[in-house]
UniProtKB/TrEMBL annotation, chains A, B:
Keywords: Cytoplasm, DNA-binding, Iron, Metal-binding, Repressor, Transcription, Transcription regulation, Zinc. It is found in: Cytoplasm. It comes from Nocardioides endophyticus. CDD domains: Fur_like. Belongs to the Fur family. InterPro entries: FUR, Fur_C, WH-like_DNA-bd_sf, WH_DNA-bd_sf. This is Fur family transcriptional regulator FurA1.
DNA sequence: CCATTTTCTTGACTCGTTCCAGAAAGCGCG
DNA sequence: CGCGCTTTCTGGAACGAGTCAAGAAAATGG
């Protein structure tokens, strides 16, 4: 669907050097949405067994700064990454098992971006996290 | 304004034992909105110089679980606590200096609570974080 | 193919938070 | 008012995600 699976091209387009670790990280984030850093390290090492964790951390930072990847971190979770960027979507997080799913906000455009009183802040983004229970955990008797 | 500054009463009402550390922590959170754990430890030790950090961590967890205090943790920040609970307000966070301010959502009631497609999740809360720059940082030339 | 600049490897280290065992304090009851 | 049970607190070790730093390796432009 996206012509964007040409990762080297994506990197170049963002003005970044094309390195094997970066390509692999970009690929891992694309194929494992909402994965944490450790999972990404694992996925990357399937291709490049010798990458250091530092290379992955660096790549994730660089990619995030370049806007090729988005970092999310719900309260109580470690950092997670996803490849859907610039499309103003949000997340539902399961309180019980931590599962994360994408949600397109009911309001088609930027949701709630107009705070009633912004205290003088210049707001450029509204991040919404819905908390609840995923289908499986909703069925299972609450154990917490 | 709130008859709720009787902290021991608040604790008892929540079915919790009244201990000096808990009362002090509750007081610290009330007087230092959005403070992180370290600041709270400092504030608590102004009254009780000998409290262990663990007592503060335990109290914060207990108070959070009891709903007397709310924990927030914007991406990239450590845990912070506030005493406004159950009133459905949100936060603006400064990307530059990390300052946090309260915001009442434009929609008077639960904002965006109806996700367009909730993937089968049972949603009970929508948490909104607005990102931008606080008044001071908006004036200062962007240095990041 | 070379030089320059950026990125990666390795390994130590920081910092917020949690775990643990024993001592202390709160609460219900007589 | 004091006893005993249970919860909480103290002190200190431990943990884990993430960062820092120095030198080796690889990308890009010529």
């Amino acid at each position: 669907m996206t012509p964007a699976d040409d990762f080297p091209q994506l990197l170049r387009g963002a003005g970044l050097r094309v390195t094997r670790p970066r390509v692999a990280v970009l690929g891992a984030v694309h194929s494992h949405p909402h994965a944490d850093t450790e999972s990404i390290i694992g996925a990357v090492r399937a291709d490049l067994p010798e990458v250091s964790h530092q290379a992955v951390y660096d790549s994730l930072h660089t990619l995030t700064a370049a806007g090729l990847v988005r970092r999310i971190q719900p309260t109580g979770s470690v950092a997670r990454y996803e490849s859907r960027v610039e499309d103003n979507h949000h997340h539902v997080v399961c309180r019980s098992c931590g599962a994360i799913a994408d949600v397109d906000c009911a309001v088609g455009h930027a949701p709630c971006l107009t705070a009633s009183d912004d205290s003088g802040f210049v707001v450029d983004e509204a991040e919404v996290i819905y908390w609840g229970r995923c289908p499986s955990c909703a069925i299972a008797p609450a154990r917490q």
